[in-house]
Structure formats: C-alpha cells, structure tokens
Automatic annotation (TrEMBL):
Species whose genome carries this gene: Solanum lycopersicum
Protein name: BHLH domain-containing protein
Protein keywords: Transcription, Transcription regulation
Entries under InterPro entries matching the protein: IBH1-like (IPR044660)
Domain of life: Eukaryota
Lineage: Eukaryota, Viridiplantae, Streptophyta, Embryophyta, Tracheophyta
Name of the gene encoding the protein in the UniProt record: LOC104648378
Length: 104
C-alpha cells in the first residue's frame, strides 16, 4: 500500500492537510527522526502494556483501563513508601548524630 506522501505533491487531489503531513514527515526523516506506521506504533504500545502488566502487582489479569487505574494507585503507594523511608532514614541519622554527641 502506497502512502499519500509517496505520490507527487503537485497532485490535484492532495489536500492542504496532506501536504503539511508530508512536509512534516520529510523533515522528520531528514533530521533522523524515525517515522513509524500504525502497525509499528500499535506493536510498541502493546509491548509497553505487557511490560506494565509485569511491573504492577496483579497486572497480568487486568484489562488496559483497569491496569492504568491500578498503575496510578501503585505509583502513589510507592511515593508514600519512599517518603516514609526518607523520614525513617532521617530519624535514624538524627539518632546516630545524637549518640555521637553524647559519646555513645
């Protein structure tokens, strides 16, 4: 299947939008930007969803919508755990400094 960008740009059936898309794709190709077709994009999204399902606990059994909801909750949970660990580390560090002052 030939894309509309492979046709002559002087074609009378070319719309303004098609010309802008072709110019953009040409600039991207010239700059080294990789232009992907829909199949490649869908494949990449599928790979990312599979990776996300492996990361999120119980993600393998979830549909995409529910997976995204669980991912958001999981991120919040991890942020809370990180904050708690920082507080705990600061507390322990403070106790160590206090002991050093007291000679212990």
């Amino acid at each position: 299947m030939e894309s509309s960008c492979n046709r002559e740009e002087s074609s009378a059936t070319f719309s303004r939008k098609d010309k802008n898309v072709c110019k953009r794709q040409k600039r991207r190709r010239e700059s080294g930007y990789i232009v992907k077709n829909n199949e490649e994009e869908e494949e990449e999204v599928e790979e990312k969803i599979l990776a996300l399902q492996k990361i999120v606990p119980g993600g393998e059994t979830l549909g995409v919508d529910r997976l995204f909801e669980e991912t958001a909750g999981y991120i919040l949970q991890l942020q809370c755990q990180l904050k708690a660990l920082k507080v705990l580390a600061n507390f322990v560090e403070g106790n160590d400094k206090q002991r050093m002052k007291l000679g212990g």
